Amino acid sequence: MLKRKIMDVLVHWKENHKKECLVLHGVRQCGKTFIIRCFGKQYYKNVIEINFVERPDMIRVFSGDLDVKTLSQGIALRMPEVKFIPGETLLFFDEIQECPAARTSLKFWAEDGSYDVIASGSLLGMTYKDTSSIPVGYEYPVDMYPLDFIEFLWALGIDQSFIEDLSLYTSGMNEIPDHIHDGMMQYLRQFLVIGGMPEVVNSYVDSHNYQSVQRVQDKILRDYLDDIAKYANNADRIKARTCYLSIPRQLSKENHKFQYSVVEKKGTARKFESSIDWLREAGMIVNSYNVSTPDFPLLAYLKEDQFRVYLSDIGLFSAMFGYQIKETILNDSLSGPVKGGLYESLIADILYKRGEKLYYYKKEDSSLEIEFLLERKGKVIPVEVKAKKGSTKSLNEMLKKDQIEVGYKLTSQKTVISDKKITLPLYLAAFL
Question: I need a surface site. Which of 119, 154, 187, 191 has the fewest CB within 10 A?
Fold first, then answer.
């Protein structure tokens, strides 16, 4: 079983919630159903699971009155093996996007309080299915992602105490021993080609075969394209697919700003903007937005029409380039703009999977560019990413500002401190 951080979130909800049903969002195949089953088995005497894709007949239960007594009787009628035990039952609605009325019913389950209820559904379709009444105030929304880098290390069997000790190096004051640095860089490159989709990680743990990894990744990518065809509306179906497939080319440019002309010659925002919105709401991509000035709060300076697009999992992104690229990544022989795009996507993956909003800074009339901006205690922290050794002119310029107290250069080098600039190895992005 893969150890997941979100288990702690589920336990916290169980122990502290009052009149709220937990709604777990996340891209398809990131492990939502598996973790809820594990949680239910460990913390409840009784679990009732309804998957509205596998049991479309259950949708009829929610076609009439939505009071708890009527619903529980209707469920028991069609599932005579289940028992509703007050205070000891977890009711799990899976693929709830297929039954909008079931989502409306969450209000009544929450108000009744006899049973704990978790609803799960990929963002694919969930935002776009008609729901007669969203139960505002009765949902406890939680986002789930594919495995992050730390969870990946857990899957490989790396000791928790060793991982915790790594965070001590983020201050830049302590020198990282060579054997630790070399080992962690290798793990990072493995994460770059494997990523965090649970089925992919399990495939590697079981076989240590990168061809098997690629086969599983290719299957997931095909499933995602099939999902676009199934869930996107007619106007966005082909355009969303084309936008998704353009991402490797978008991130292989020197300037990674998403350009509609890369999707299609003479492509425009008017034509493709809604398709990008659909992919983002579906959880298949993550947007990083440019800001007009690197000041706190960054949201106040966001430029909605200038953004970069990353895939929701770094392993799927590298897999889009094909199997052959895996060897060049693992032996660190890849070069050129593609390498820069891959490592920038890697840091984006590490940051967003721990809940960071992604921002960058790029001045149109200069070469000044900072890949990521973080917010900490009312301050902005610039983060520049270098896939290889190189100067950091943009970061050096940014650090001249009085309001910027510290900045990070992430690279393959070990720790170095130079005035306000701290150079850290790329893998320490997980601990910033």
Answer: 187
pTM of this prediction? 0.94
Confidence of residue 128 (pLDDT cuts 50, 70, 90): very low
Residue 126 scores a pLDDT above 70: no
Q: What does the pLDDT read at residue 233? A: 86
Q: pLDDT digit string (tens) for 402-424?
A: 899 999 999 998 888 888 999 99
β-pairing, 379-385 with 372-376? antiparallel
Rg (CA), the chain: 23
Domain residue ranges of the chain, discontinuous segments joined by +? 6-143, 149-431
Question: Are the beta carbons of 308 and 317 closer than 8 angstroms?
Answer: no
Residue 122: HSE in the Cβ half-sphere, 13 Å Cα cutoff: 21
Q: What phi and psi, each to the nearest 5 degrees, are found at residue 169?
A: -85, -10
- According to CATH, the topology of domain 6-143 is Rossmann fold (3.40.50)
